[in-house]
Amino acid sequence: MAIKRKIMETIEEQKRKRAKEKVDKIKGFYIHFMVYLGVNIFILASIAINLREGESFWQLGHFFTLFFWGIGVAIHAMGAFAYFPFLGRNWEERKIQELMDKDKQDSERYKYR
Questions:
Q1: Is pTM beyond 0.90 here?
Q2: Is the pLDDT of residue 47 over 90?
Q3: In this predicted structure, what is the pLDDT of residue 62?
């Protein structure tokens, strides 16, 4: 029974470690998103305050940082929340299983006979 309890504890530790890694990824995304918002609000406010008379705020160049950094934030969100529309549902699990099966086949091939 001690062995079974030890195995169960190890499994629980692994589950906790995976959950903590997911939480850390989500936390990292939220920090990134808040910095993104703060910096872009500052940039756009600075542009608005320093406009010359008659100059339009709605110029393409004023929004480059917002747009391109926003793409990075969106990609970060997809990674943090495990959302991969291009790869389909459960892609990661299928790929892990595929690699494990390949490794097993390779080890069987070179097994001492």
A1: no
A2: yes
A3: 95
In the numeric block, the tokens 């940082």 are attached to 65
What is the widest separation between alpha-carbon atoms in the chain?
85
Task: Average the pLDDT over 68-96 and give the result.
Answer: 87
Mean pLDDT taken over the chain: 90
Residue 80 has a CB neighbour count (10 Å cut-off) of 19
Q: Which three-class secondary structure string do you get for the chain?
A: CHHHHHHHHHHHHHHHHHHHHHHHHHHHHHHHHHHHHHHHHHHHHHHHHCCCCCCCCCCHHHHHHHHHHHHHHHHHHHHHCCCCCCCCCCHHHHHHHHHHHHHHHHHHHCCCC
Rounded-to-integer distance, Cα 108 and Cα 113, Å: 10
pLDDT for 93 equals 82
Please report, for residues 36, 70, 83, the alpha-carbon distance to residue 30 in angstroms, rounded to integers and kept in the order given.
Answer: 10, 13, 16
- Length of the chain as a residue count: 113
Which one-letter amino acid corresponds to residue 89?
R
Locate tokens 């299983």: which residue?
A: 97
